[in-house]
Design a protein that fits this description.
With about 130 residues, this protein is of the alpha+beta class. Helix content is about 25%, strand content about 35%. Helix 2 crosses helix 3.
């Protein structure tokens, strides 16, 4: 679990985890999306509503993904299921380069929500090729 700080105040939290650490979660996602060995996911939350809609979540996710790739060099991609009605959340992921790879029914984090989710994926960036003659 990591705390995002904005102007010396706590702005949000973000965490990473291997999807295969939970057999139950792995079994729930597997019918909907390919899950390569070492795949990870993230969860995130902006704490203060005043920080929503201002790009804070996008910045937090982008910075965190840079760290994730360094800390977990064998992770091939990150898959994030998001409740379909949480448009701000999946748009923040979209702005960070995640692409929608599936939609499907999953157990919601909040029991009052429907089971409808979108699933987004970000592949590990590849190294840029060296310029010719370098």
């Amino acid at each position: 679990m990591f705390i995002a700080v904005l102007n010396v105040s706590d702005a949000g939290v973000i965490q990473r985890y291997r999807i295969d650490a939970s057999t139950e979660y792995l079994d729930e996602l597997a019918p909907l999306v390919e899950l390569p060995t070492g795949v990870m996911s993230i969860d995130y939350l902006i704490g203060d509503l005043a920080n929503t809609g201002r790009g804070v979540g996008t910045e937090m996710i982008a910075a965190f993904m840079q760290r994730l790739w360094v800390d977990h060099p064998v992770c091939p991609c990150v898959i994030v299921p998001v409740h379909a009605e949480n448009i701000a959340s999946w748009r923040a992921l979209d702005r960070c380069g995640f692409v929608r790879v599936a939609v499907g029914e999953l157990v919601p984090d909040n029991p009052v929500d429907s089971r409808h989710h979108v699933i987004l994926r970000l592949d590990r960036p590849t190294a840029s090729p060296s310029p010719r003659g370098a």
